[in-house]
Amino acid sequence: xxxxxxxxxxxxxxxxxxxxxxxxxxxxxxxxxxxxxxxxxxxxxxxxxxxxxxxxxxxxxxxxxxxxxxxxxxxxxxxxxxxxxxxxxxxxxxxxxxxxxxxxxxxxxxxxxxxxxxxxxxxxxxxxxxxxxxxxxxxxxxxxxxxxxxxxxxxxxxxxxxxxxxxxxxxxxxxxxxxxxxxxxxxxxxxxxxxxxxxxxxxxxxxxxxxxxxxxxxxxxxxxxxxxxxxxxxxxxxxxxxxxx
Length: 245
Prior knowledge:
Layout: H1 10-14, H2 18-29, E1 33-36, H3 41-53, E2 58-62, H4 69-82, E3 87-89, H5 93-103, H6 112-131, E4 136-138, E5 155-159, E6 165-169, H7 177-186
Parallel strand pairs: 1-2, 1-4, 2-3, 4-6
Antiparallel strand pairs: 5-6
């Protein structure tokens, strides 16, 4: 099957539930389909749903090498629970070395441009390498996570560098935080301990902080830019530009 011969159509895929989408992707694309997860609650729910109907579906993470210990602990728990191996896509070592040598370990504090450069090296480029191995990309984006994500489509076709197109699916895009929490509790899923410390969005250490009551769920990202970056999308670059959103 090629990307121009997708069956059913993207519009028909929009009507399918999460488990049906996982089963379809694995049946049609096999190892060319996978879940990319940062192991927040939505990702854990996706993995559990997929294991019920497509236990061979790949599980992938972009490992920036700056993740919280609590996040690595969730990964270990997921691997033990399902007997699977999580694939880690990491920054290119030489590119990372040059960035730190030129700008320092904590360049993201200096300017927004340097923060985005760091994200590009540590997250966007590894993500692009992961996507080069996929035709179907499952993501944990939900519409209630931020104003920017409020119009997140369930299914879209996105073009990656080099012209490779990927079917991007956010199977839980219309789930609420309460629904995710309820599923987590009902099925006793591994849960990142940072949630109990006030985190509502979890990424790299330092660049992710707890949020205050009433704040946007992604307000804790790059907190030091809040005061003069009003309207910032609070995105690292993975889900903007060629993301299809």
